[in-house]
Amino acid sequence: MSGFFALVRYLRLKFLVSIFRLLFRLLASSPRPKPDSVLKIPSRDKYRIIRAHIYKPSTEYTENKVPYPVLLNFYGSGFVLPLHGGDDAFCRHIATATGYVVLDIEYRLGPEHPFPAPMNDAEDAIKYVLGRPDKYKTSCVSVSGFSSGGTLALIAPTLFPPDTFQSAIAFYPATDLARDPSLRKPPGSNEEPRSSFWTPILREACLGEMDPRDPRISPIYADTLNYPASMLVVTGELDKLALEAEELAERVKAESIASGRNVILRRMKGCGHDFDKEDKDDVCVRARDETYGLAVDMLKKVAGISAKSRSN
């Protein structure tokens, strides 16, 4: 694409995404996270840093010195919305209930920074943790994420050698960005697929020039042999992304017969996308508590953490 047409395309996407961001701010409250501290991680790009909110383990788990097991979490954004901190409740709950240090990672967004920028930031943050065994228990690193952050959590293991991660946890992720968005249909609804005005725009904004079938964007096309021994994939019955996420999880489960992986796939009845953020819906609150509990159980199991102690 010539420089002129690339500029016109960018300006168009910038204008439309700015409107989308404004509408979102008007309709939804902005995250107000309360991490214990903020970490500045060096980026591969000179003069850039990657912000991470740090959530420390509760005193129940701090009798022994560091290093602690670590969970890197990636927030949901649609790869365009600046919602870093939206998973504050999850991160705090995991740190309190498991003895993990939780790093909630900020990553770049389109159209200003399309792929591979988000993926590069995720990879740089993971490398930062792996390079500091004095601060983090690098033999016990897990990843998690919500929505587009769940996509990054499923991409991350494919970028590193096997056994780098002990578990991967993905809540309602998109796994196939090459799929026609207008054909997506929630498994628990009989409604006909409908096109969305914003979906193709946001998709174009985050993809840039990359092929959507690139496994570094759409994990459903990735070789799953590098996936960790334990995985949790959570979907919602009313979410249009559910079927593609379940397709990937079922494939990994089928392969797990030989590999011995523990793969948990849980579809939450009566729940849609972002169900764990719906505090006023009793069905969603119960689903949130159940699925957060599954995440806690998995993380404690892979780290060998008991309720009152931890061992290095």
Q: What does the secondary structure layout of this molecule look like, with pairings?
A:
Elements lengths: L2 H25 L9 E6 L6 E7 L12 E7 L13 H11 L2 E5 L11 H14 L5 E11 L1 H8 L11 E5 L26 H10 L22 E7 L5 H18 L2 E7 L13 H22 L9
Parallel strand pairs: 3-4, 3-5, 5-6, 6-7, 7-8
Antiparallel strand pairs: 1-2, 2-4
Helix pairs in contact: 1-5, 2-7
Description:
The protein has 312 residues and is of the alpha/beta class. The protein has helices at residues 3-27, 88-98, 117-130, 148-155, 198-207, 242-259, 282-303; strands spanning 37-42, 49-55, 68-74, 101-105, 136-146, 167-171, 230-236, 262-268. It is globular, with a radius of gyration of 19 Å.
Low-confidence stretches: 308-312
Structural class by secondary-structure content: alpha/beta
- Beta fraction of the residues? 15-25%
Tally of alpha and pi helices: 7
- Radius of gyration equals 19 Å
How many DSSP-defined strands? 8
Which bin fits the share of residues in helices?
25-40%
| Average of per-residue pLDDT values | 92
Order of helices and strands: HEEEHEHEHEHEHEH
Please state the overall shape, judged from the principal axes of the Cα atoms.
Answer: globular
How would you characterize the largest beta sheet? 8 strands, mixed
Distance between the termini: 53 Å
